[in-house]
Amino acid sequence: MASRAKATILDIAREAGVSKSTVSLVLQGSGLIRPETATKVRKAIEDVGYVYNRGAANLRKAHSNVIGMVINDLTNPFFAELAVGMERVFQAAGVVPFIANTAENPVRQEEVLKSLMEQGVAGLIVSPARGTSPGTFRRIETAGVPIVFTMRRLPDSRIPVIAPDNHRGAVLAAEHLIRRGHRRLAFFGGSSDLVVYQERLGGFLEACETLGIPAPDRLIVEGETNRKGGMACLETAFAVPQPPTAALCFNDAVAFGVMLALRKRGLEAGADFAVVGFDDVAEAEHYSPALTSVAVDTAGLGERAAHVMLKMIQSRTTRAENHIGAVSLVVRESSGPDRNSQVGDAA
Amino acid sequence: MASRAKATILDIAREAGVSKSTVSLVLQGSGLIRPETATKVRKAIEDVGYVYNRGAANLRKAHSNVIGMVINDLTNPFFAELAVGMERVFQAAGVVPFIANTAENPVRQEEVLKSLMEQGVAGLIVSPARGTSPGTFRRIETAGVPIVFTMRRLPDSRIPVIAPDNHRGAVLAAEHLIRRGHRRLAFFGGSSDLVVYQERLGGFLEACETLGIPAPDRLIVEGETNRKGGMACLETAFAVPQPPTAALCFNDAVAFGVMLALRKRGLEAGADFAVVGFDDVAEAEHYSPALTSVAVDTAGLGERAAHVMLKMIQSRTTRAENHIGAVSLVVRESSGPDRNSQVGDAA
DNA sequence: CGCTATAAATGGAACGTTCCAATAAATCAA
DNA sequence: TTGATTTATTGGAACGTTCCATTTATAGCG
User: Fold this and answer.
1) Fold agreement between A9-52 and A66-164+298-325
2) Nucleic strand D under 7 Å from the C-beta of B53
3) I want to staple A160 with a disulfide (CB 3.0 to 4.6 A). Which of A320, B23, B185, B273 is the partner?
4) Which among A58, A83, A112 is the nearest to B55, CB-wise?
5) Nearest CA-CA partner of A275 in A173, A122, A159
6) For B249-287, how does the pLDDT look when each residue is reduced to its tens digit (9 = 90+)?
7) Could you give the CA distance from residue A259 to residue A256 in angstroms, rounded to a whole number?
8) Strand D contacts in B 16-35 (CB under 7 A)
9) Which of B52, B55, B97 is nearest residue A55 as measured by Cβ atoms?
């Protein structure tokens, strides 16, 4: 049953008894064609089983209708939520997003970007992998293809960024812990080569500073940004002479890992050790105990990024404003008061 | 900085002082070109910032190097794990997988498939959305583009399927529950329009049959295949006169929902009600209590699907064998014995 | 030296669209 | 009727590659 040679616009022109130009016009939904002719052509398309060759079309057209979404870790549900938000917007605009996973690997990322560019994408939405080299996006920029970073940014690039207010989120979270009476605080997970890390850690430190937690009482443990990393962080923290009683985690995945490690030690998050996450993925609410986390309006950021991208494509510019999304702390069960402190507030 | 007109193969030919054919040969890594010439050309490519136009190339070449991965629910970590397995294989073969999400929506699926076809994919790996109409893949088949289904299949299509042994997995799980002394069993989540559902439910019923659980003691509750659906299932089940004491869930997401609903009622999975999931996603092991689940070797199935696809492309056939992957039951904490039964085995 | 064999490089015709300029047909005004 | 205007349709030249058939340069051999 393998088909004969693929049908082209000429085949269906012959079939319908019109010229290829007419067929092309029908395909583009032009109003110049007499309705009867159009239906005749559409029938031929159906009969022949023709499939439009967008590659050929793009050879002539200025812009393609596909944009690339390059994501550093698809297994993190956070990014899936982000992707869902974007897709809604793109679908409405007749743009097709192709998602590619870099698995946090800069080499893989280069390959993926190259492929996407070769495919002629109209734009790129990227959450860059860790260790992305500064020059990675140079050539894409000079090719005039619009790029938007989401969630993550590169140290000194001028590419627009759509991200949550990481600093503010971390301040809120740290203040919350301190108000609950905790005096020895930790920051768990992430590594200093990520700008996001610097922002979140910066907020954490600032809150400590203003609310009077001295440097010796602050413990910073870098680590992988997943469950495993979180577990390792907690072990490290409990090995120091004066362990912390609460931790702000780089993201929710790390927080889940911390809670798991706690349970392995027979301790309970909230009662024995306070933990706060970042991102507020769907799972946070359902976890046990439910995870206190910094909500970043993931889907909203995704939609925002998509809108910015569409506008850039439309106005054929490679510049756009950054967008820093508002954040809020969602207090749940995992961040109980310090048990040895009288200062903890009730709720 | 917006670039001038895109550089083409001719521009770099001029720059390097060779013909376009030579450049093309270099691009393809042909051995016919003198090494010095090749480096000269490569330098020109670098200088000019040329990007290869794969669309134009595909106009002449038989096959493209991109395959489409169409997935019904990217937010289910199970599919992310599956995608990761495939990517490993494709990357090694120089094939670029583009992932598209259908969000379990047949209309969206049609759009996505159309786009992918127009883009000229060499093949399609699909986990079809619920309610996919039988004709959806007809035209793709007749176009000669190889398709592989993963995890799900369509009622009577002849498209090859790579999936776990759902029937066997369900039998193992149900037997396990019955051996633990449970006598009133439920099957939670999913709906009968999915073939996978029929297979898993079929296994469940068969085990009940052979181990002597009569029909009145079997409760079947259909529902969404996510946490929310699982929660709803448990509520429904507890509303009947003689509620079940154990449940096999359509997948892990449903199982997590069930455990959550149990906790809301002050009950604990394992001690008060046994729950078994299906898929054994990474999270199952880390959950609290850890979830007993049917492991399906997700990444392995992904790799398998990718290999089958590559072979189909290579041999330009649209036919291939089905592959039913082995399954195993991973017993953890969530499936304790029936507390009112003397028959439960220890461990 | 001439001749052939091999190696390296090249021109030109596709590939399947779009879009402009041109044509053909239908309508209208005078 | 004729010419002007509008409405539908059409041919042909791009677009950026590949690949075949050639051409040109280089080497090998007697």
Assistant:
1) no
2) yes
3) A320
4) A58
5) A173
6) 999 999 999 998 998 899 999 999 999 999 999 889 888
7) 5
8) 20-21, 24, 27-28
9) B55
Closest alpha carbon within chain B to A47: B139
Q: Beta strand B323-325 with B292-295: parallel, antiparallel or unpaired?
A: unpaired
Superfamily of structural domain A166-297: Response regulator (3.40.50.2300)
Q: Which residue out of B286, B313, B316 would a mutagenesis test of the A interface target, given it has the greatest number of A Cβ atoms within 10 Å?
A: B286
Segments of chain B with pLDDT less than 50:
1-3, 343-347
- Point out which residues pair with A187 in neighbouring strands: A220, A248
As a whole-number percent, the residues of chain A with pLDDT over 90 amount to 79
Q: Give how far Cα B297 sits from Cα of A323, B291, B307, B327, Å.
A: 41, 16, 15, 7
Domain range annotation of chain B? 9-52, 66-164+298-325, 166-297
Best CA proximity match to A340, nearest among A219, A181, A116, A215: A181
CATH architecture group of domain A9-52:
Orthogonal Bundle (1.10)
Q: What is the pLDDT of residues A28-59, one digit of tens each?
A: 999 899 999 999 999 999 999 999 999 999 99
Chosen from B65, B72, B101, B115 to mutate, greatest number of chain A CBs within 10 A: B115
Note the CATH architecture for domain B66-164+298-325: 3-Layer(aba) Sandwich (3.40)
Q: Which residue of A has its CA nearest to B94?
A: A111
Whether residues A111 and B117 touch (CB distance < 8 A) is answered with: no
Helix (H) / strand (E) element for B163: namely strand B161-164
B211 Cβ contact partners less than 8 Å away, ≥ 6 residues apart? B174, B175, B178
Supply the DSSP string of A257-315, one letter for each residue: HHHHHHHHTT--BTTTBEEEEEE--HHHHHSSSPPEEEE--HHHHHHHHHHHHHHHHHT
Average pLDDT over chain A reads: 92
CA A195 to C1' D18 (Å) is 45
